[in-house]
Amino acid sequence: MTQATGTPTRGYAAHSSTTPLELWSFERRAPRPDDVSIDILYCGVCHSDLHFARDDWGMASYPVVPGHEIVGRVTAVGNDVTQYKPGDLVGVGCMVDSCRHCQACNDGLEQFCQEGFTMTYGSPDRHSGTLTQGGYSDKVVVSERFVVRMPDGIDLKSAAPLLCAGITTWSPLKHYGVQAGHKVGVIGMGGLGHIGVKLARALGAEVTLFTRSESKVAEAKRQGADHVVVSTDEAQMEAVTEQFDFMLDTVPVQHDINPYLKALKYDGTHILVGLLDPIEPAIEGFNLVFKRRVLAGSLIGGMPETQEVLDFCAEHDISCDVELINIDQINDAWQRMEKGDVKYRFVIDMASLKDNS
């Protein structure tokens, strides 16, 4: 019996923490019985891609092809695949595997897998041990369980960021039960914040965007925010004391959480989805204890939730604001992303890879 061989693949890879991404040829694994083979059409550009490739978190291995906001078309399926067929439009997000047997996995919350989920890039494959490679490439092979279906009518390029930014904001909004009548504050007006505003509004909440910049007030309202608070204005912050049921905090750098806790009602919940570093300055216990407030965190979302947010966005005509780029513009895009010069997500048109040498 002849052994199946892998698929020749081209992508853009980081070969060290200090060098630009460059074209790289590699081989995808031979498809397994539960695998879906996908030609990639679009891939979103997440700030996490840059952090990982530059080893800001101390966990990178090289070479690495970033990209975990993948939209593509199925080209082949394994014998055990039941949900997809060639020609289907599908997506792949931040995970491509997990243990599949712990309580979290059984609950459809694979992001909390007790053995740790397998990341779309830079993680050892649970079977072969080879490093996973991401979506800045022309093809990908993924287990059926970690593939989601693109709903009819959804704009594919704008849907790509929903597989990270969308699910990261959707999961806590749903978990904590945000609904009509609630007042939700969204902190930060970037890739996560702008989609968080749209999702919370579509769930029926009254939404206030908190920003440090007066220049973002008009833009926040254009995105659907009912109100905007400039957080550097003490009078504006004082005026919203004890007004909110939830705070969705999308800011990825250290910032003072205490003023936002004061804006929560009793039993209010402040949800961190962007900050991974130690909280500085320190949280004043008074701001939690005296109002029974909750400080919480949330990480992406499980596979059922990921399908749910795609379906919800298709139903409510919600899309991410994107800037489409060619693959050979990726290094410039990263530089612009570092400066905040994107509204609000770069998405790579992978057709450009076919003409790139």
Helix residue percentage: 10-25%
Radius of gyration over alpha carbons? 21 Å
Give the H and E element order.
Answer: EEEHEEEHEEEHHEHEHEHEHEHEHEHEH
Mean pLDDT: 95
How many strand units? 17
Based on helices, strands and strand pairing, what is the structural class?
alpha/beta
Low-pLDDT stretches are: none
Largest sheet: 7 strands, mixed
Based on Cα principal axes, name the global outline.
Answer: globular
How many helices?
12
Alpha carbon gap, first and last residue: 36 Å
Work out the strand percent: 25-35%
Layout: helices, strands, pairs:
Layout: E1 7-13, E2 22-28, E3 35-45, H1 47-53, E4 70-77, E5 89-92, E6 95-97, H2 103-106, E7 118-119, E8 139-143, E9 148-149, H3 156-159, H4 165-175, E10 183-187, H5 191-202, E11 206-211, H6 217-222, E12 227-230, H7 234-239, E13 244-249, H8 258-262, E14 264-272, H9 285-289, E15 294-297, H10 303-316, E16 322-326, H11 330-338, E17 345-349, H12 351-354
Parallel strand pairs: 10-11, 10-13, 11-12, 13-14, 14-15, 16-17
Antiparallel strand pairs: 1-2, 3-4, 3-8, 3-17, 4-5, 5-9, 6-7
Helix pairs in contact: 4-5, 4-10
